[in-house]
Amino acid sequence: MPRRAQFRPTIVEMYLDDQFANRASLWLPETVLRGKTDHDTYSPKETIRWRDDGSELSYRAIVDDGQMLIAGHVASIDQGWKLALTIGNHSERRWDNVIGAVCLLLSSAPEFADPTRERTYFRSSSRFCRLSDADVDGGSPPYRMSLVKGARQLERTQRHRDKWGFTREDCDDGIIAVSGKNSGRILTVSWDRVNHLQANAATAFCCIHANPDFGDLRPGDERTCRGVVMLTEGDLGSAWEKTSRAVTDETRARRTARSPQ
Questions:
Q1: Secondary structure element (H or E) that encloses residue 30, with its range
Q2: In Å, how far are 20, 72, 152, 208, 244 from 180, measured between CA atoms?
Q3: Which of 23, 73, 118, 119 meets the CB 3.0–4.6 Å disulfide criterion with 58?
Q4: Class in CATH terms, 11-255
Q5: What is the spatial distance between Cα 226 and Cα 250, in angstroms, rounded to a whole number?
Q6: What is the pTM of this model?
């Protein structure tokens, strides 16, 4: 029997080729974590109205009974998409170590879906590492995470420890990649500030995350993280360089646009 149906108001579909053979679903965000996993999280359930102005998809909504603002933006760039996610604290209490869990679902992208994680990569100690080979601190086999060096770890509940295994070696940066099956293409995700990488190998998801880090948000604070989904050809080194440059260029462009003329 079917288990359940879910309404996902913050998903955008991304087509990875002209033949519509591979579709990735960007969940922007899947969940917002406010310091403590499982105990203080919010997953959007309200009806959210997206706007399409011909060059950008966007939304802005007050959710969680008026306690939170979330806003998402997606626009095409050369070799991918640029992203923005804004989180605002409209409550009366401080939120510590806020993280947006932004999921890129690949279950409808057979070229990139990687249930074995043998084609999913992160970088640690300046080496490209297969996630399938990483030593982890526990968790259930389908579920893996990797903390970015220097980032603050979430306060983890026992349920979270039982489900998710973190790599014992932290990752060098906030880029996660999946190489295509025999295609020479590499799919990457990154943001200007990333707390941890994440991958779920369950067949229904086959997802990857680079989860943006919003830091601490006091009542009235808003913060925006900017990122990219990139689809490049070549080796991992080239994919890393292009992804890092795209994030830097987008961040610099926004900073310049805000500067007084």
A1: strand 23-34
A2: 15, 27, 32, 14, 20
A3: 73
A4: mainly beta
A5: 7
A6: 0.95
